[in-house]
Design goal:
The protein is an alpha+beta fold. 34% of the residues lie in helices and 24% in strands. Strands 1-2-3-5-4 form a 5-stranded mixed barrel. It is elongated and about 65 Å long. The chain starts with a strand and ends in a 5-residue tail after the last helix.
């Protein structure tokens, strides 16, 4: 038997009464759990096994499958359901974790995927931060927690610390000032302004008490979002379905 705190990232029907849930554990792994009688109103732990429920889970493993014994809710991010765009963005975050974090992997030392997800869902549910800000914060900090942090300390060509304009190489995970010129790459480098670079550095290095506390103008924020999304998709080789759905809601004209 195992007992741990976890967050439900996804749920899938299994037969007439059961379901599978994917749970991000406090150990920063993802575990698939079978929940018996999940569709019965009398099912124990019904609320604790719904999507984006943070709970204490007691599970047992039999024949290479984990089964739920009991679950006690700690916090349920229920208000995400009040907005389709917020809910779909949360599902995108969950899909990124499920596709990049494996059940049997050994987490990096000082890996804080769970903390990142819980903090992001808090700000997303409360509306205290915009979706346009939360999305790049989550994407870039997740890559950092997974050990795929880009090198943003200085220009790869000449070593300048903060050029006014720069080229960010999605493929190489670094930047070049405009004096050095755009690097040769299979992925077209993105031309950014200094505030975007400063925001990316903040996301990489800030502690969690300060991570969500910065602002960018609309144009720079848009470029930050493009930059982090392309970086994630290239280095994780992913095109999450939830992101396509989120785009169809927030920018239907682009479909």
């Amino acid at each position: 038997m195992e007992i741990y705190r976890g967050l439900v990232l996804a749920e899938r029907s299994a037969g007439e009464q059961g379901k599978f849930i994917d749970v991000l554990t406090e150990h920063n792994t993802v575990q698939e759990i079978y929940v018996r009688g999940a569709k019965k109103n009398s099912s124990a732990g019904l609320s604790a096994t719904q999507l984006f429920s943070y709970a204490t889970f007691s599970v047992q493993k039999r024949r290479n499958q984990w089964y739920l014994d009991s679950a006690e809710p700690i916090r349920i991010f229920y208000r995400l359901r009040e907005s389709l765009s917020r809910l779909s963005l949360a599902m995108y975050f969950g899909e990124l974790i499920r596709l990049s974090v494996r059940e049997h992997q050994t987490p990096e030392e000082n890996c804080f995927v769970m903390r990142l997800m819980l903090n992001t869902l808090h700000y997303l549910e409360s509306g205290q931060r915009s979706e346009a800000l939360l999305k790049p914060i989550f994407e870039l900090r997740l890559m950092t927690e997974l050990g795929m942090m880009p090198d943003l300390l200085m220009c790869r060509g000449c070593g300048v610390f903060l050029p006014k304009r720069l080229y960010f190489s999605v493929e190489k995970g670094c930047f070049f000032c405009t004096d050095c010129g755009a690097p040769d790459s299979t992925q077209e480098p993105l031309l950014l302004r200094a505030p975007v670079l400063q925001a990316m550095r903040h996301i990489l290095f800030a502690d969690y008490e300060r991570l969500f506390h910065f602002q960018l103008g609309a144009e720079n924020l848009q470029m930050l979002g493009i930059c982090t999304e392309r970086f994630v998709q290239y280095h994780l080789s992913l095109k999450p379905k939830a992101l396509t759905f989120y785009r169809s809601i927030t920018n239907p004209s682009a479909e």
